[in-house]
Amino acid sequence: MNRWLKTLLFLAGSALLTRFIPFSSLFRNLDTMFHEFGHALMTLLLSGNVLRIELYSDHSGVTYSAIAAGGKAILVSLAGYPLASLFALMLFYFYSRDKREWGLVLTSLVALIMLVLYVRGGFGMIWLSGFILLNAAMLFLWPKVSKVYYLFLAFLTLEESVMGTLFLVYASVVTPSRAGDAANLARLTILPAPVWSLLFFLFALLCATWALGLFFRHEKAGRRVRLM
Predict the structure, then answer these.
(1) By C-alpha distance, which of 14, 217, 224 is closest to 98?
(2) Residues 204 and 85: beta-carbon distance below 8 Å
């Protein structure tokens, strides 16, 4: 079976199973956090100004930036989905190197930067504060359950990074003007929204394939060590 199809089937099964975990919906905002941070980071790298970031309870978000029109605006619009996929991949990389605490520190640092500098408004500030405190508790108070918690975050973020782009493909075909970043890029370039959304999806799927490869190789190596 094709590796990408296997990845999609595994993520679909994982997404279904995680729906039964209490409060899992709250943690799906982690992918949104990485997505909006990607827009903000690209804005800063291009010498733009991040005005504010908003995170919502329906797992959506928006970043308001002041950036020069043209190529810079295109790069800022491009950054969200790929950066979210790369962050998900990075979480699995840390896991494969037995550096889960680095992953928790990284996610907490991103949340702290957004909380202190950019996010204003009820839900976003509450969610970021709670997430940072929970990560700190896992690192210092409940290290025995941190592995399960870490894998929960990693798989949930990976699922959302792929499923979010898959939904974007659908939205860009049905209502192209409401397809978020793909719609913005369609206005800024000659490519239509469905093409951009498909590119986002393929990149997310590629990152997910790499991430699952890291995970399964690590688990296989762990079983060999235990058997020996």
Answers:
(1) 217
(2) yes
The separation between CA 218 and the C-alpha centre of its own chain, rounded to angstroms, equals 22
Q: Give 65's strand partners.
A: 50
By the 10 Å C-beta count (0-12 exposed, 13-18 middle, 19+ buried), 5 is classed as: exposed
- Pairing between β-strand 61-66 and β-strand 49-55 as defined by DSSP bridges: antiparallel
| Tens place of pLDDT per residue across the chain (228 aa) | 567 677 767 777 766 666 666 667 778 899 999 999 999 999 999 988 999 999 998 888 999 998 887 888 999 999 999 999 999 999 999 999 999 999 999 999 999 999 999 998 789 999 999 999 999 999 888 878 888 899 999 999 998 899 899 999 999 999 887 888 999 999 999 999 999 999 999 999 999 999 988 988 877 766 655 555
Rounded to whole angstroms, the Cα distance separating 70 from 126 reads: 35
Residues 45, 47, 53, CA angle at the centre, nearest 5°? 75
The one-letter amino acid at 187: R
DSSP letter for each residue of 21-73: STTHHHHTHHHHHHHHHHHHHHHHHTT-EEEEEEE-TTS-EEEEEE--TTHHH
CA distance 228 to 216: 18
**Three-state secondary structure call for residue 119:** strand
pTM (2 decimals)?
Answer: 0.90
Query: Which residue(s) pair with 64 in the sheet?
Result: 52
